[in-house]
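# step 3/5: fold
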Amino acid sequence: MIQESIAIFLLAVAYDLLLGEPPARIHPVVWIGKLISFLRAHARPTKAMGFALAAAVIIITVLAGSFLVWAANPIPFLPILVCAYLLKSTFAMRCLLQVSSDIGKMIDQDMNEAKKMLPSLVGRETATLSKAQAASAVIESLSENYVDSILSPIFYYLLFAPFGLGLEAALAFKAVSTMDSMLGYKTRGLKELGFAGAKLDDLANFIPARLSILFMALSRPGKAADTLRTAFRYHAATPSPNSGWPMSACAGALGIRLEKPGFYTLLDAGKEPQTSDIQRAIGFMKAAIGLTLAASLAVLII
């Protein structure tokens, strides 16, 4: 079972790094999104319906993944390939790094075009952002998504792999994460319906978010003290109980001030971020991701 878990993990990582994201028409997360949209259209905007919707999305996602693996059983090696494909869909390393890099370059070339691209990475209003604020937004999202889009699904895969449920756990996490990204807003019609998904997402990311600062500190040993000090001082500045940890750790490691105007500032004494800091942040996060993968493989082997 462990050898199979290792093979699935390595194949999933290789797929992500070499090929990136699969086409939307066959992307499992896109289908999770379609399921959420369908259920939302037929649900009343209440907390009770939100919990029912969350349970339905998680159960259907896990059962659908299990069914695909079961259906592949008659063909040798195909179940492992299907598992790897499904696991890969729960994390997005290459995509996150590439999108961050593309937007960073565009901020220098054409700020108006960069503002159009930013919503693919950040959820804030982009029309009035300065170059420094846009650079900050990219770096904040990069560090936050290191947890949500990479560390957390891998964490749950590792946690449940010894019980033969690693893929199911990763898929369940991705279902929760997708619900939060689609429904977790305090707007009319979503505040109540999205409550369950948002709280489940907070709970699911609780440990990985705090674990992330260790990988980030180890990724830049010379700045480890600054990374950890800033994380512990500023993590509570953000509205989210989790996103402040990796974002403030990144601010400390790079020595820059990260800010969402009107909401929070991380590392007040840091220098104003420049577009060049985006590439520094990408290099830093590549190191953190590399350590994450190495540590994950070690856990599976041991």
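# step 4/5: annotate
The chain has one domain: 2-301.
# step 5/5: archive (pending)
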